[in-house]
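Notebook p. 47: complex prediction with zinc ion.
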Amino acid sequence: MYHELELPGRALCQCDPGYVRYIVPMEDFRQQMQFIKDSGLRGLSVSEALIPNAPAGPVITFDDGCETDLISAAPLLREMGFSATFYVTVGFLERRWYLTRAQLRSLSDLGLEVGSHSLTHPYLTDLSQDKLNEEISRSKQELEQITGQAVLHFSCPGGRWDERVANTACRAGYHSVATSRSVANSSSGSLFALGRVAIMRGTNLETFAKQTKGHGLWKLRVKDSVRASVKRVFGNALYDRIRAGILANARDKR
Ligand SMILES: [Zn+2]
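Predicted complex, structure tokens below:
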């Protein structure tokens, strides 16, 4: 799971420390993709991975719909002969440093897969059923209108997932839902609760190599479950304020 890629001299979509942790420099991304290629594997989209007898390789996904999806990730993926799934938030389109509608169409026309990352990027587990339907169904329709392709895969903003989200996406016609749980997927797992590993800023190649093989993910899961417990105790809104405070404090100390 990637987000924006950082290019030298170019501002990021957002600058708060909680966001920047998820931003990988372009050069690191290039090395990571090269590692996959040198391992004899291919980067896949979600749809490709679901085909029976799919080629071996990790699924590559991007969340949010940043402009670097098209100008940085796409050319490199094409050069390597890889695919990927780009989960796009409709409400971010046309914002500064995010994709425009025309750029999204270009991304799709390159043969790269477009999925939905909701309409407005809310925490889905906090929404009423009506709002949830709108975020999940309307984003699908709008993205299909822009790309002219079926949008079959959904990823949860902020990784917030529950059974209600999975059922709503299934009813809306999606074929899968991606979470942010650090688990390797298998054919026996649910398509509506796919695991993903966040590639964080500063992830070295050794760690990346282990993660693409699904090794050592239990360590990430321990962190995930501590975070999930804190969120349950404090609620999403207070959790975000506490996290922003801790990260700002850590930054000031550096
Ligand atoms: Zn997101």
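Notes: Strands lie at 5-6, 24-25, 61-64, 85-88, 113-116, 153-155, 176-178. The mean pLDDT is 92.
Next step: compare against the earlier run before touching the bench.
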